[in-house]
Amino acid sequence: MPVYLDCNATTPMEPEVLEVVIRYMRDDYGNAGSRTHEFGARAKKAVERAREQVAAVVEADPQEVIFTSGATESNNLALLGLAETGRRAGRKHLISTAIEHKAVLEPLEQLVREGFEVTLVPCSSSGRIDPKDVAAALRPDTLLVSVMHVNNETGVIQPVAEIADLLTASDTYYHVDAAQGFGKELDALRNRRMNLISVSGHKIYGPKGVGALIAQRRNGSRAPLAPLIFGGGQERGLRPGTAPVPLIAGLGEAARIALRDHATRRAKCLAIQQEFRQALNGIEHVINGDERWLIPSTLNISVPGVDSEAAMVALKDLVSISNGSACTSASYKPSHVLEAMRLQPERCDGAVRFSWCHMTNEVMWRPIIERLIDLQ
Hints:
It is a single chain. By secondary structure, the chain is an alpha/beta fold. It has helices spanning 15-26, 38-58, 71-80, 83-89, 102-113, 131-137, 160-166, 245-260, 262-280, 308-315, 336-340, 345-349, 365-375; strands at 3-4, 65-68, 93-97, 117-121, 142-148, 173-177, 196-200, 211-215, 286-287, 298-302, 319-320, 351-355. It folds into two domains: 3-11 and 262-375, Aspartate Aminotransferase, domain 1, CATH 3.90.1150.10; 15-260, 3-Layer(aba) Sandwich (Aspartate Aminotransferase, domain 2), CATH 3.40.640. The chain has 13 helices and twelve strands. α2 packs parallel to α8 (245-260). The longest helix is centred in the N-terminal third of the chain and has 21 residues, at 38-58. The two termini are 26 Å apart. The mean pLDDT is 96.
């Protein structure tokens, strides 16, 4: 089997997390809403424990954690859930960035169809947003600012804490899509000015199909979200439906381990990145994204003369990699992220993303470089 180097698309599951998920599928399989017997009580306790574990990562109140099916649903709830408030208040302007995931850009497109106005802040070739551009885009009718924590394609860490500081005196709501950074880059997300933080289970070594929206109170009030679906009072009425206890418990365990093992995971990822950088000295290449701001587990590179599709085919028996977001991998369109960085077309066409984690097997970098050289 090739070595898996596509952890930005999805991570392997931690063995400890898998044990928890299996336990609540096989043994403690009660409905968290069943209050009349022990099975239901155990399930509810597992959900509340997970709420505490997720909240602890960003030092939030457990009651501010709303469980969802993943970061895509969390993003939709954050963006579309504020729409009615914006209409009533006459605040129909939103700010985001040109490098967001489609899980943010497409809900914004829907809001434009509903009469909202969206300003997409550009970025430079660094792949990083300038907080001053966000501040300059603010208007009296700006309802929401939405900025991702870590870009999923380039691994560039965005200045979400600096943007929070610029919004201190503003009543504009602030949403951070933290799918790629939650549990990996801790300090920036520990900020009460962030009204809404989106979380994904399968990006932090937990199960697929579960995530959270952390809706933090500010001045005693939470962002006035409206539900997108109806049919029960679960999750404070914002996400009705029977709680998927095994998945939620798995997300909680993944969050707990992320705090416990943060330093050792980071060290392992940095070591892999260093090995890769050393191997890249043997071939002409360019890194897409400012190296000063890269998360330790990602490198997006272009090799002159090598098309990304050709590279992935040539390397498929050695490593599993991608040329962008998993959500758009079926498309042959150039990456909107790299285009927003204003990179040359041939550089965009040749971009491949390598992303790893602390569980990544040893990578034999030399054969990879040799294959890429053969393609030049």
